[in-house]
Amino acid sequence: MSAQSPMPESDTPESRAAGAQPSESGLNRELGVLVGFDGSELAALAVRFGALEAARRKTTLTVVTAYPLPTMIYPNMASIPNEPEDTKAEKEAEKTLAEAVELLRDHPGEKSFRTAPGDAAGSLITLSADAEVIVLGARGRGGFMGRVLGSVSTAVPAHAHCPTIVVPHHATKADADGPVVVAVDGSDTGRVAMVTAAAEAAVREAPLEVVAVLPAGEEWLYWYPELELSSEVTGRRQKQIATGLEGEVAQLSAQFPDLEVSSSVPVGEPTHTLVEISARAQLTVMGTRGRGRIRSALLGSVSRGVLNHAEGPVMIVPS
C-alpha cells in the first residue's frame, strides 16, 4: 500500500524510529494508535480520543484518510479530464487530512499523517498489522449503509489484526474515571479479551470488572445443562458460573498483581445488560464472537448489538 503525508514531520527517520519503540503496552508496532479520519464530526471525536490513547500508551499516533481509486474508463478522448481522477482524489484526501493535522496541532507526542488509496475499511485492516489499536468513530460520512453502524466501523473490528475501539457520538457521557469492563462467556475468545482488558486497565490505572451475563432463557441448552428452567436452576447456575469466574480472576490477578479486579454474573439479556454497563465504564471490552448460535460469524450478535447501542467506547479484540 502506498502512503503519503502532507506534513514532512510525519515521515522522517526520527518519527519512524520513535514510533518503533515499545510502548506502555509492551507491543512494538510502529503505527501505534491508528485513527481513521474522514472529516466527519465523529472522526474528529475519534482523533481526539486517539490522541489521549497515544499519550496514555506513550506511543505514536497515526491518522489515515483513505480515498477510493476511480475506474477511469472513458468512452472517448473528449471525456478524459485534464487532471487524472486518482490525483484529484488524493488531493481531496490530503485536504481532509489537513483538518486532522489542525486538530492535533497541540498534541505533544509523535504523530504521523498519511493518505491511503483504496477502500477505507480495507486500508485500515491492512495497516492494523502494524498498529497497537485502531480508533474509529461509530459512523462517518458514508452514512448508515443499511446498518446502525457505518460500514467501516462494522467491517474493521471483524477483520483487524489488532483491537479496535469504536467511539460513539455520545461517548463524552461515559464515565472517564470508571472501570474497564470486559464481557466473558467461558469461550477462548472471551479469555483473550479478558487478558487484553487487564492490560488496558493497567495502562489506564483503572479497576477491571469481569462480567459474565447469564441469559434469562435464550441459549439455555448451554447455560442450563439441567434442561429445566426455574428460578432455583437459574440461581444454581449463576453460582456455578460465579465460582468458575472467580478462579479465572484469581489467575488474572496473579498475572497483574497491582490491578484491582472484581467479577459479577448478572442475569438478563446480554446486549441490553452490557449496553447499560457501558454507560459507567471508561471502556467496554469484548471479543469478536463467543458461544453464540452462529459461531462462524465474524462479529457475534452480542458484540454487534453492543457496538450499535453502547453509551461509551467499546473495544473489540480479535480472536
Short description:
This protein is an alpha/beta fold. It is 39% helix and 16% strand.
In CATH, what is the homologous superfamily of the largest domain? HUPs
> How many strands, which pairing sense, and closed or not: the largest β-sheet?
10 strands, mixed
The CATH level-2 architecture of the largest domain is identified as: 3-Layer(aba) Sandwich
Name of the CATH first level of the largest domain: Alpha Beta
Q: What's the rounded overall pLDDT mean?
A: 79
Count of helix runs: 10
Helix content: 25-40%
**Strand neighbour order, sheet with most strands:** 3-2-1-4-5-10-9-6-7-8
Number of domains: 2
Beta strand count? 10
Shape: elongated
The portion of residues forming beta strands comes to 15-25%
The secondary-structure element order is HEHEHEHEHEEHEHHEHEHE
Using the coordinates shown, work out and report the CATH topology of the largest domain. Answer: Rossmann fold
Pairing-aware structural class of the strands and helices?
A: alpha/beta
- Distance from first to last alpha carbon: 25 Å
Given as residue ranges, the uncertain stretches (5+ residues, pLDDT < 50) are 1-22, 141-149, 292-298
Rounded Rg: 21 Å
